[in-house]
Amino acid sequence: MKIGIIANANKIKNERVIDELSEVLLKNGYECELFADNSCISNVDVLIVLGGDGAILHSAVVAAQKGAKIIGINYGTLGFLAEYERDETEKVIELLKKVQDGTCHILNRSVLELQVGERKYYALNEVSFQRDFASYSGKVGQILRLETEIADEKTQVAGDGVLICTPTGSTAYSLSAGGSILFPDVPVFMLTPLCALSLHSRPVVYSDEENLLVKVTQGQSLIIVDGEVVDVLSKGEAVTINKATFTADFPMNDKAVFLEKIKTKLNK
User: Is 53 a catalytic residue?
Assistant: First the structure.
């Protein structure tokens, strides 16, 4: 089994951390390759990410498209997506052995696919359509009005925008915006209004088998994928969001408990 390693250089100041992990992997009979950045990820069975949630999030989407499983080791602040903390690297070997012999539980996290014209973007956490406060376009922003359509039902939302998240992303931005917490393996997505002007605009949970259409009816919308601005949507333009054909696969520690993790990680 071939293992890839990628590290957030801003978090990993001591190069020996990577060297020591590589040595342990080689000693236990695993092939090992170090990747400088996400664009280099290829031809590995498992990718070990050293960093915070941001590093794990963006590496996971690339690894998922390449068919690699993801194990995160937390070198950040929260580490909600990480399976281990920085002082638990030796436990990775135990998990890898279970992955190799097929006795490890694999959490298949759904991924959003956003189609903008001929361009496609993928998100493990969320896609948001947000009012442009002039910081991006240089123009004075205005209230953003969007039309959303799910299963032939249309809804109007006015305010700062909307956010569509996966169960993985339900504990991130969506939660801060008033959305519900979803267990990571439920087959749904959630649409969460952002600072809506109407009391009727509330989070909506819908089947991940449904396609979602978002159309701008007033203003200009930034399209933000997992925290990064990737495109701009003008009045009259529309995009579709659906479930990607691949999943981000995370090997799980037998002792990992979702609700317990929420209590310990989100109450700091």
Answer: yes
Q: Which of 19, 37, 45, 53 is catalytic?
A: 53
Helices 91-101 and 16-27 pack at an angle, to 10 degrees, of 40
**206-218 pLDDT, tens per residue?**
999 999 999 999 9
Taking phi over 0 as left and psi of -120 to 50 as alpha, with beta for the rest, 22 belongs to: alpha
Tell me how crowded residue 255 is: count the other CB atoms within 10 A of its CB: 6
Largest CA distance in the chain: 60
Average pLDDT, integer, range 131-145: 72
Q: Which residues pair with 109 in a beta bridge?
A: 248
* Count of C-beta atoms within a 10 Å radius of residue 223: 21
Tokens representing residue 141 in the block: 């922003």
Structure tokens at 159: 């305010």
Q: What is the Cα–Cα distance from 219 to 234, expressed in whole angstroms?
A: 7
Q: What's the predicted TM-score (pTM) here?
A: 0.92
